[in-house]
Design goal:
Rossmann fold; globular; alpha/beta; binds aspartic acid; 14% strand; 10 strands
């Protein structure tokens, strides 16, 4: 792999390689001193044209834990605000001797375009409603830990088990909510289906993208059919910042019909895993109790964040040719 731009273009072997590497890095995150010299002397630049808490910070920590220098470009204070183009910005970062560029952009396809302008490895940290590959990889790792290895939170993170392959063929994953605006849903459709899982998509008709039927997913018309017998429920944020008006009659109705609560979880398997990429709209797409794992719900929201650091370490390591054990 030269860049990581989408899961659609990432084959199953490459997905396995990232996950396997991430399991090793998870062990480092458990140590009191979370630092290895593997990327010493290298530099990672994060270029985020959209806001982010988890993704940007985890890329930065991932780089630092591997001894690379991490620099964030505050886009609002950079020459982008003077009208500098994506091409010139990328060329400048390359001239500044960056060894890897992590980009988030509101336009679908921006990461691919960026990769054409530079020979430095580019990682897509979310481009519009298109893809968010590292999110799908961290979600796959979380599902594998719980549903294949059988890790409970107190044994997390789990060690790599040769007898526990990254095979999710026995699992049904329901992805519910604002599918039209979700790059997480698209990347997960590709990633989880490549690993063998059955992927269901469900959301209001107005929030279902036209191309859903071309993706490796089964589209369900209501929450009950999506959740019935599901092993994993992935709840999506209602992305009000990307929505035109008039897509939903009211938030209250949305949460009544599509909100994941203790009541709707009764349709799923008793040991269902509840995931959310964050940030959450508590009380809208997910109830606060379910998000917090109250009443025996297996919510993985925080574990996903920690796995995000390990997965991003793995991606940087593999793309930047890290060295050492
Ligand atoms: N954090 C995720 C993303 O950037 C999900 C979200 O924003 O709802 O796509």
């Amino acid at each position: 792999m030269r860049d990581l731009l989408s899961i659609r273009e990432t084959d199953t072997d490459q997905i396995h390689q990232v996950l396997q590497t991430a399991v090793g890095f998870n062990e480092i995150l458990k140590r009191p001193v979370k630092k290895v010299p593997t990327l010493r002397g290298r530099s990672v630049i994060t270029l985020f044209y959209e806001s982010s808490t988890r993704t940007r910070t985890s890329f930065e920590l991932a780089a630092k834990y591997m001894s690379a220098d991490a620099v964030n470009i505050a886009v609002a204070q950079s020459s982008v605000s003077k009208g500098e183009s994506l091409k010139d910005t990328l060329k400048t970062l390359e001239a500044l001797t960056a060894d890897c560029i992590v980009i988030r952009h509101p336009s679908s396809g921006a990461a691919h375009l960026a990769a054409q302008f530079t020979s430095v490895p580019v990682i897509n940290a979310g481009d519009g409603r298109h893809e968010h590959p590292t999110q799908a990889l961290l979600d796959a790792l979380t599902i594998w830990q719980h549903k294949v290895v059988g890790a409970e939170d107190d044994t997390y993170p789990v060690a790599l088990r040769p007898d526990k392959p990254f095979d999710l063929a026995h699992l049904t994953v329901a992805i519910v909510g604002d599918l039209a605006h979700s790059r997480v849903a698209r990347s997960n459709a590709w990633c989880l289906s490549r690993l063998g899982a059955t992927v269901r998509w469900a959301g209001p008709r107005t929030l279902l993208p036209a191309e859903a039927h071309q993706l490796p997913v089964t589209v369900c018309d209501d929450l009950e059919s999506a959740l019935t017998g599901a092993d994993v429920v992935m709840v999506l944020r209602l992305q009000t910042e990307r929505q035109e008006s008039g897509l939903l009659p009211s938030l209250r109705e949305y949460s009544r019909l599509w909100g994941v609560t203790h009541t709707s979880l009764r349709w799923a398997k008793p040991d269902v895993l509840v995931m959310h990429p964050g940030p959450m709209n508590r009380g809208v797409e997910i109830s606060a109790e379910v998000a917090d794992g109250v009443g025996g719900v297996r919510s993985t929201v925080e574990q996903q964040v920690t796995n995000g650091v390990a997965v991003r370490m793995a991606c940087l390591y593999l793309l930047m040719g890290g060295s050492g054990e």
